[in-house]
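Task: sequence in, structure out. Protein: GNAT superfamily N-acetyltransferase.
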Amino acid sequence: MTRTTQTFRSRAAQRIAGTTVAVAGDEVAGFVTVAAGEVEQVYVDAAVRGGGVARALPAGAQRQVAAARHGVAWPAVVPGNARAWRFYEREAWQDEGGFDYVTAGMRVPCRRYTKRVQE
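Result:
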């Protein structure tokens, strides 16, 4: 399946309720999207890295996962995203190993990190 602007818009519209946006002044500093127990998307603008946004967004995602009564939060991290690997390991997420993440009809090799959450 080819990703198009329309498929992106459709998918993004479905994720609004699970998305938290961080702002710094009038600018978007980052966002996190949660779908069930998955911390599906995390983005932090390079200009605000090191200022706490990268810790705050996943912490908020963990609270969302817990409130939805999922016991474990998990992101799928693609190969080569060493910054994410280091972040999750530093923040005490457990590396559960490799798996194939299926999205839009494609299989993407990833690593799954997990963290137990409580309400």
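The two ends are 38 Å apart (CA to CA).
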